[in-house]
Amino acid sequence: MDLQTMTYLVVGASFALYIGIAIWARAGSTSEFYVAGGGVHPVTNGMATAADWMSAASFISMAGLISNMGYGGGLFLMGWTGGYVLLACLLAPYLRKFGKFTVPQFIGDRFYSKTASTVAVVCLLTASITYIIGQMTGVGVAFSRFLGVSSEMGIYIGMGIVFAYAVFGGMKGITYTQVAQYIVLILAYTIPAVFISLQLTGNPLPQLGLGADMVGTNVSLLEKLDQVVTDLGFGKYTTTTAGSTLNMFVYTLSLMIGTAGLPHVIMRFFTVPKVEDARYSAGWALVFIAILYTTAPAVAAMAKMNLIGTTNVAAMKGGDMFAPESSLKAEERPDWMKRWEKTGLLKFEDKNGDGRIQYYNDKTKDAAVKAKADAAGWKGNELTVNADIIVLANPEIALLPNWVIALVAAGGLAAALSTAAGLLMAISAAVSHDLIKGVIKPDISDSGELMAGKISMAIAIVIAGYLGLNPPGFAAGTVALAFGIAASSLFPAIMMGIFSKKMNKEGAIAGMLAGLAVTLIYVFAHKGIFFIKGTEFVNAIGGPNSFFGITPEAFGAVGALVNFIVAFVVDKMTKEPPEHIQHLVESVRIPRGAKAVDGAH
Amino acid sequence: MNDTGKAYWSAVLGLLAKVLVIWFVVSFGAGILFADALNSIKLGGYPLGFWFAHQGSIYVFIALIFYYAKAMNKIDRKFDVHE
């Protein structure tokens, strides 16, 4: 069977499965719509959380980023997993005990203020909507690469599928499709990795393969990789950091805090029956996430090794990498390279006209490498590789059968759709529960609110689709913004709401606004106001990365610190929260008395 | 808050401090600040600092959460505030 047919078959089967689940899991009450009825098993919830959390970025882009960054890429690995420790012991169990449908509702009740909950809604909507744009474009990309349809068509199909299970099933439909999507995406990610690890190191477990010797030699994979990348003028794989050590430190911390503060993840923990379950469920979520996250660095290093080994025969066999016959002849390049050239993600340009491909770092500071390249008549790097290829083309590079390639397509779509659905859930709950029921029409009936939830979900899907079709020129910067907002506004407010009995509404609101403001200013200064080109004002803040060399992506932790400081200063200057709020905090802190999650305001 | 409540909360905060110290030491410590120094030690084919940044801290995070959940259960029962 040819690749195209096979891909249609596998992706079609996965979609049929999601729709089947949608028909089975329809939501009949607000409790089913917002929290899947509140009876989800902690392991099931862990699996759904893993799919909810792992987006198109984790599945498609992360290994490629690590492959380019080397050791410094570890900031994504540690940052996007370490947040679960914070979530498990600082937030999730307490919010589950509080027992309401949404995150803004906690902030509104705890800080006895509609203003506080409205600020939280605004933060939630900004973070979730910016995040969802990336998922929709991811859906379009996966469709256009693998299924030969236009990316617009792909987005429409994706919207239709999400509509089927999110609008009618709410959290209930989303939970069980996310479980199915997790299984699809994890198989798609690990199967190619196992084969590649076997080919390079003879060890089927990528986690061990990365630390093993190359097949038939007694040189370890990482040692070999370090040697060939430095020979070609790249930074040493196992030690190159992301900017300064301080930047890597702050970046990692920002991703951790942002992870813990993202409302679509927190919400998942409202679906388990007990406080105890919320704690264990966070652990299970991390187990399922770790299966992908510990495989990714192996995929990254092995793909780099394979790529260099393909373009330069001396890399694997030894010998002079700068000898003319070491470089791959352009006409003998493998089929997968030709295939990916058509997508524009891989580019070959014969700069020195020798009919061979030279892949090296032409901007290297290593004078010896430069001299060798010049002596060999190399006129610059001739191969540009987009980071996304590393995962998408992996099965082809390893010469795996067509069904594996088809599975990778289904996996990429599962990752994007599951995260999109979780974000849509957070958005529609904030609109129907926090705005419509909380502020605009408090006396709305349960069935009225359910209808409002479904309508806001449908509208959110249309908006997300529109933004995916017309990405507002800032798609690349959006994920950083989502994490920055979650880290600088929501995480500190929730944490202080639990761990400080005396934190009052003035402090919390001032803190959220201050944290949000500094983060937005720093990000916008670098990337333009609302990412509009030409409106950057980076000189006004003293030049790029002026705050101790910290990049805007890494700034969320600084915003969080500002939030905490402002909140405590304002809190000290204003009056204590009322007695009943302090009792509320005491009751949130102990598990006893936890009841099913409900929506009463 | 009564005395039992206070004692319960300080037990919780004590556990939390332990968990967060380990969380910090494996990721920010071993994975970032001391990665260079640890790289001179080899774990199989892995330089140790690199291993912590790309593998080890994730495994420790998992162990930490399950340890925390278990220890919290014990504390909840000891102070009779469990569900």
Automatic annotation (TrEMBL), chain B:
<protein>
    <submittedName>
        <fullName>DUF4212 domain-containing protein</fullName>
    </submittedName>
</protein>
<dbReference type="Pfam" id="PF13937">
    <property type="entry name" value="DUF4212"/>
</dbReference>
<feature type="domain" description="Sodium symporter small subunit">
    <location>
        <begin position="6"/>
        <end position="82"/>
    </location>
</feature>
<feature type="transmembrane region" description="Helical">
    <location>
        <begin position="12"/>
        <end position="34"/>
    </location>
</feature>
<keyword id="KW-0472">Membrane</keyword>
<dbReference type="InterPro" id="IPR019886">
    <property type="entry name" value="Na_symporter_ssu"/>
</dbReference>
<feature type="transmembrane region" description="Helical">
    <location>
        <begin position="46"/>
        <end position="69"/>
    </location>
</feature>
<keyword id="KW-0812">Transmembrane</keyword>
<keyword id="KW-1133">Transmembrane helix</keyword>
